[in-house]
Amino acid sequence: MKRNYFIVLEGIDGCGKDTQLYKLVEAIREGIILGDKYTNIWVTREPTKITESGKKISELLKTKHLSLEDATKLFIEDRKEHSKIIKEILKHSFVISSRYDISTLTYQTAQGGDLDKLIELHNYNKDVEEGGCIVPDLTIIFKISPEIAFERTHKRYLDKSIDIEYFETLDFQKKIVSTQEKCINKLRKTGRKIIEVNGEKPIEEVTSEMITKIKEILK
Predict the structure, then answer these.
(1) Potential cystine with 130: which of 10, 40, 126, 193 (Cβ 3.0-4.6 Å)?
(2) Terminal-residue alpha carbon distance, the chain
(3) For the chain, which domains are there?
């Protein structure tokens, strides 16, 4: 009997993870990888809009009144609540999420947070009912250069005629890329299954690389 997997897609803004998320869903339902057309798949994202903490994050992000400390607390609380839901969903469905813990670890560390402390706050070694965060079966990181990320996000903001956020500036994107590497290396040492995919290639080539690498890890 095939098991249900919790798969996370991560990467800096502009890496194409949401596009690839739906490509992965299609590949599973077409029987190319892991499942078939009858496979149940629950698509989610973080921050969520289904937990109390997730809803609060959305409200505070609109006002831009969110300190590093408050953001850290809310993102992790949202993840712990989300983990309880994911554990139940996994009883009958795959769960695929756009963003999860590596996003928080990366962005909060890049802004001055302590990586070891952030990891500790997730309580990975505890059950979700005891305040722990569920560990993904696989995390996929879509890698692109800071310059390409900036070009893609800059165009997106210009197309929508809105101001560029600090998180979208080239200097900050460079910091995020280097910090993300530190987070990935740290988690790999704990046994986490993490694969990296070149997100700079054409969409179909990115999808092909993603599927090939997933097949190597998840049977």
Answers:
(1) 126
(2) 12
(3) 6-217 (3.40.50.300)
